[in-house]
């Protein structure tokens, strides 16, 4: 079966989704940000630069356990925390404040405290060079990591634990961030049931238990899934009223009398960015922009097709919307010859054996068993692949 003419190639669909997200972020960045406590900032996009509120470190400290010393030794020992005059030393621990008069730190392995003529002296340990410690040795000077006012994280960064740590070091309790993009989840299908054993003609919902977690892993903030009947008016009302920055729908992407998504998008004047994708499974997946700027990802109803479409459209879209690059593809050696499919990429859940990646069993578009056993998803080009060929992969978000 040949693909319809306006169908988009697989790689182009990813790029279009990412650009749509990045463009939307550009508009959102002009909007309001909120200050969020550090411990809740992970994964959010920074609205303003993080500046050091004080020099970092903000005081000179010792990099070793040992003694702060002044002048050449031996040294007369003083209590910890003493300001020093030449010829004096005082115990100091790693991170301890360097007191006035200190010229260097003698590490504990290099010194011996001894009683001489009723005085407590610090001497170099046997074999330690009399050059030890050279001036400034083992002293971490104030401001060596950042000066007050330096930018330590630029605006637009998606915050990792390392960013939160440097922000804390720089004196911040919270950061101005753009909240995670909200994602409305609309699941269509009269035949879909959410618990128990389905009767013939009914299916158990695979999306309600999974999409919120996947959307979260991809950087979005999911709303609780809403279930819709196969009905034009209900679908239209839900899409118009569900809110969110992104709307993810499942099912109804086809052209049967039970499928209403495309008609609704046309009726509400949506701009179709990706009408369908030259891939399998998942070709009826679509991407659209509503008049109010919200982005709609239409996933097909078949469970594996929906997952492959979510990885192809949803992951890049949320990456763009959260200030990240297009998610990089992995690479794997094919452990089998993979058949061509004219004009389409095939997305195949694979398992690894000693030869490389081999297609998992049970990977029909309505199945989930293969994906459940898979290490990842291999992207097979339309011309197929020979055994031993290196192929791109889509990482799984879990
Ligand atoms: N005449 C044609 N028929 C179909 C075509 C085609 O090109 N011509 N494409 C097929 C492909 S490929 C796919 S994929 C599906 C797309 O279907 P829809 O997106 O319209 O989805 P539905 O028809 O609503 O459902 C399809 C299938 O998925 C099951 N489903 C739906 N929701 C759930 C859920 N929450 N959990 C589990 N399973 C779900 C539904 O029961 C159907 O079996 O169209 C093909 N047909
Ligand atoms: O391509 Mo459909 O999306 O096979 O299930």
UniProtKB/TrEMBL annotation:
Residues 126-149 are annotated as: Disordered. Keywords: Magnesium, Metal-binding, Molybdenum, Molybdenum cofactor biosynthesis, Transferase. This is Molybdopterin molybdenumtransferase. Residues 184-320 form the MoaB/Mog domain. It catalyses: adenylyl-molybdopterin + molybdate = Mo-molybdopterin + AMP + H(+). Its cofactor is Mg(2+). CDD domains: MoeA. Catalyzes the insertion of molybdate into adenylated molybdopterin with the concomitant release of AMP. It holds the Pfam family MoCF_biosynth. Pathway: Cofactor biosynthesis; molybdopterin biosynthesis. The lineage of its organism: Bacteria, Bacillati, Actinomycetota, Actinomycetes, Micrococcales. Belongs to the MoeA family. Its EC number is 2.10.1.1. It is an enzyme of class 2 (transferase).
């Amino acid at each position: 079966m040949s693909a319809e003419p306006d169908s988009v190639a697989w790689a182009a669909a990813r790029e279009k989704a990412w650009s749509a997200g990045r463009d939307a972020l550009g508009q959102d960045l002009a909007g309001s940000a909120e200050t969020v406590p550090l411990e809740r900032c992970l994964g959010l996009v920074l609205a303003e630069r993080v500046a050091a509120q004080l020099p970092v470190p903000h005081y000179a400290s010792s990099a070793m356990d040992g003694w702060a010393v002044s002048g050449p030794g031996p040294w007369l020992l003083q209590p910890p925390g003493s300001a020093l005059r030449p010829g004096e030393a005082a115990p100091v621990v790693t991170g301890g404040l360097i007191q006035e008069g200190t010229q260097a730190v003698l590490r504990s392995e290099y010194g011996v405290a001894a009683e001489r003529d009723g005085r407590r002296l610090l001497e170099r340990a046997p074999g330690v060079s009399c050059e030890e410690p050279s001036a400034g040795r083992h002293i971490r000077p104030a401001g060596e990591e950042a000066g007050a006012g330096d930018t330590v994280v630029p605006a637009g960064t998606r915050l990792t634990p390392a960013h939160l740590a440097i922000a804390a070091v720089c004196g911040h309790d919270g950061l101005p961030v753009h909240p995670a993009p909200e994602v409305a989840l609309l699941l269509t299908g009269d035949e879909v049931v959410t618990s128990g054993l389905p009767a013939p003609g009914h299916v158990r919902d695979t999306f309600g238990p999974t999409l919120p977690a996947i959307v979260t892993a991809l950087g979005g903030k999911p709303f609780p899934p809403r279930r819709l009947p196969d009905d034009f008016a209900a679908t239209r009302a839900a899409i118009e009223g569900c809110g969110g920055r992104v709307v993810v729908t499942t099912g109804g992407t086809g052209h049967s009398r039970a499928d209403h998504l495309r008609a609704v998008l046309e009726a509400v004047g949506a701009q179709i960015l990706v009408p369908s994708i030259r891939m399998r499974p998942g070709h009826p997946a679509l991407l659209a922009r509503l008049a109010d700027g919200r982005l709609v990802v239409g996933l097909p109803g078949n469970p594996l097709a929906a997952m492959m479409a979510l990885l192809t459209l949803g992951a890049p879209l949320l990456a763009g919307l959260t200030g990240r690059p297009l998610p990089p593809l992995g690479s794997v050696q094919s452990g089998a010859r993979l058949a061509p499919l004219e004009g389409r990429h095939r997305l195949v859940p694979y398992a690894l054996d000693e030869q490389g990646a081999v297609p998992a069993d049970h990977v029909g578009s309505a199945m989930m068993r293969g994906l459940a056993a898979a290490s990842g998803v291999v992207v097979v080009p339309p011309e197929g692949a020979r055994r031993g060929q290196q192929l791109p992969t889509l990482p799984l978000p879990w």
